[in-house]
Amino acid sequence: MSDLLTVLVDGILYSSWLFIIAVGLTLIYGVMKILNMAHGSLYALGAYAAASLAGYWLNHGYAPLGSYGMLALAAVIVGLVMGPLIERGLLRFMYGKDEILLLIVTFALFLILEDVIKLIWGVDPFFISEPYGLLGSLDFAGLSYPAYNLIMIGVSLASGIGLLWILQYTRQGKLLLAVIHDREVSLAMGINVNRFYLITFTAGAMLAAIGGAFTAPTVSVVPGMGVEVIVLAFAVVVIGGLGSLQGAALGALIVGLVRSTAVHYLPEIELFSIYLVMALVLLLKPQGLYSAMEARKI
């Protein structure tokens, strides 16, 4: 019983991290029909910016608790700079093109950004572990967990609930739903579709950067860290259903629990188990698990 509880807790913690990195990817696809491969680079940029800002903050003797604010500030800066830059400077010229072409374009951007990261920060790893241990640990079910995990769960819940609230209960959210359903009709009704595309991509970029920024204290920030992330995020949104926030949550939970079970009972197949689940879902429900539950995307 204790082992099962441990698997469940570990699975939920991993799921919360997965949802943070996947929700921006599915948001952009749901609105703009772009499978943004550069999402992994935006995640890495958030991690590097967070390590730099939080490191500067701590090295100058400021209050350690302020380092959490630096993590959030780094994500906001990356989102506000990179989102408009990519959307206005590149993607707006590609609207209406085939989805495969857009996929290739964002993959090329991913490769470019990976080299840009190496040019700016070099190839040596960055460590910013102080925020991870600052809050101490919590004992649960006979095991000790870093209290920092509560921040990851909080960020995950805030991202999901916040997006759902905006879409369901605000005027701008309802207009965005109209754009999702029919871009041409929305244009005919006077809705500024390009403005919604800009806001959506900036929000998606910021969510990717948030994932990287709050993951930075838990890992070594190294070149190529966005590669694994984009593959995992892709697995999550495919399992849940591309373009569905609820599907991203469901996919993250499934992947998190499957991976946790594999780590505890058969660690040799940790990664294989995730892709096995994705393959089974694609075989049985190519549109994803949540596609049949709700016709409306996002």
Model description:
There is one protein chain. The protein is mainly α. The protein has twelve helices and two strands. It has helices at 2-32, 39-59, 66-89, 99-121, 130-133, 148-169, 171-181, 183-188, 193-215, 225-240, 245-265, 270-284; strands spanning 137-140, 143-146. The longest helix has 31 residues, at 2-32. It is globular and about 60 Å long. The chain starts with a helix and ends in a 14-residue tail after the last helix. The model has no long low-confidence stretch (mean pLDDT 90).
Which properties best describe this structure?
298 residues, mainly alpha, two-stranded antiparallel sheet, 12 helices, 73% helix, globular
Strand content bin: under 5%
Query: How would you characterize the largest beta sheet?
Result: 2 strands, antiparallel
**Uncertain parts:** none
Helix percentage:
over 70%
Q: Report the C-alpha radius of gyration, rounded.
A: 19 Å
Order of helices and strands: HHHHHEEHHHHHHH
- Tell me, briefly, the overall form: globular
By DSSP, the count of extended strands is 2
Please tally the helical runs, counting DSSP H or I stretches of 4 or more residues: 12
What is the spatial order of strands in the main beta sheet? 1-2
User: Which class do the helix and strand fractions yield?
Assistant: mainly alpha
Task: Look at the structure and give the mean pLDDT.
Answer: 90
**Cα distance spanning the termini:** 37 Å
